[in-house]
Design brief:
The strands form 3 sheets. The chain has a 5-stranded antiparallel β-sheet, with helices on one face. It has a 3-stranded antiparallel β-sheet with strand order 3-10-11, with no helix packed on it. Strands 6-5-8 form a 3-stranded antiparallel β-sheet, with no helix packed on it. It has one domain: Sandwich (Jelly Rolls). With 178 residues, the chain is of the alpha+beta class. The protein is built from 4 helices and 11 strands.
């Protein structure tokens, strides 16, 4: 990353540039979510994200809602990160492995589990015959916007950034009519 020369702007211009668009109400139909889950098998951690708010990848400013599906007997790898999760078990049974001690916490349909930032966690589906569906509310978009999105998998910590656009991509974007 190389430093660039900053700009000085009038406060009234600053306020105009940082004003956020009003967020519109959004609705998602569970039948459509189920269809999408079955249409895209093999997603990482069996996940789909809901979109539609004014902020890309968010259901509300700074928040995303992800639908996670685990097949019978499937378990995610233990990991931790800079954002929190609020899990709601939609259907099936879950076994949450939480904290440094990997304490197992069972959860069933309708149960809610909060996983704070930096808490090691993994989720398993202990049922041999039924899939597990979780709703996962998280503040990942907030951390992405702040540049503080960090994840640790298998003892390897990485700061997650999108690659900045190349000079050619910036020129193409600038030439695109609004």
């Amino acid at each position: 990353m190389r430093p660039t020369h900053g700009e000085i702007i009038a406060y009234s211009d600053y306020l105009a540039q940082t004003a956020q668009a009003r967020v519109d109400p959004v609705a998602w139909k569970w039948a459509e979510i189920e269809t999408a889950l079955s249409a895209w098998p093999g997603n990482p951690q069996g996940t789909l994200a809901l979109g539609g708010a004014s902020e890309r990848g968010a259901v509300a400013p700074g928040l995303s809602l992800v639908i996670q599906a685990l097949a019978p007997g499937e378990t995610t790898a233990s990991h931790r990160h800079s954002f929190w999760h609020l899990y709601i078990v939609r259907s099936g049974r879950a076994a949450f492995s939480l904290g440094a001690s990997s304490e197992q916490r069972p959860a069933g349909e309708g149960d809610v589990v909060f996983v704070p930032a930096w808490c090691p966690h993994a989720i398993g589906n202990p049922d041999a015959g039924t899939g597990l569906i979780l709703l996962r509310l998280q503040n990942l978009p907030q951390h992405a916007a702040l540049g503080s999105l960090v994840r640790e998998d298998g003892g390897v910590t990485r700061h997650i950034y999108a690659e900045p656009p190349s000079a050619g991509q910036r020129q193409a974007l600038a030439a695109t009519p609004a």
